[in-house]
Amino acid sequence: MDQYPGLPRRPWISRSLTANVYVGHSSLRRWLNDELGPFRTDALAAIILRAIMRNGGGIATSTLAARYALPRSTLAAAIARLEARQLAHRYRSPGDRRYRVVELTATGRREAELVGPAIDRIEHQATQAAGPDLLSAFNRIVAYIAAADDERTPASW
């Protein structure tokens, strides 16, 4: 009986969770980058553009980092790439100078409107193929891995 009905057989799928996560991560990045190729936007930048757009305005960089479990340095580099392309800009929060806020420029809003559907299409296709039970199990595994990472990672990242 096929282990994953309705999906093509992949000889490299193993019983090793870590190997499968690694391969899945690489495959997802390629899929995202293929879909986003026409926009000259890498996957992380597209996810950040969409997140800022969905927020309806500026969002604290600390909120983005927490929401997507990104190290601050990774997020800062991605935002710097967006700023270099004049898609976003950062500023100190006027209400609380401890916070940095990132906001889309007019060009960034147009780019977010273009890349958002590509990300939505991938998420829809993948979640439809997996179904609710597999998606729930996957999310539980990711939550477990993230919690284990939180325990071993210094709070300063």
Describe the structure.
The protein contains 5 helices and 3 strands. The chain has helices at residues 17-36, 43-55, 61-67, 72-84, 106-152; strands spanning 59-60, 88-92, 100-104. The longest helix has 47 residues, at 106-152. The radius of gyration is 18 Å and the shape is globular.
Mean pLDDT across all amino acids: 81
Number of strands: 3
Strand order of the largest sheet: 1-3-2
Helix content: 55-70%
- Cα distance, first to last residue? 45 Å
Q: Describe the sheet with the most strands.
A: 3 strands, antiparallel
Radius of gyration using CA atoms only: 18 Å
The coarse silhouette is globular
SSE series: HHEHHEEH
The class by helix and strand makeup works out as: mainly alpha
Flag low-confidence runs.
Answer: none
Beta strand % = 5-15%
Total number of helices: 5
Short characterization:
This protein has 157 residues and is mainly alpha-helical. The chain is built from five helices and three strands, in the order H-H-E-H-H-E-E-H.
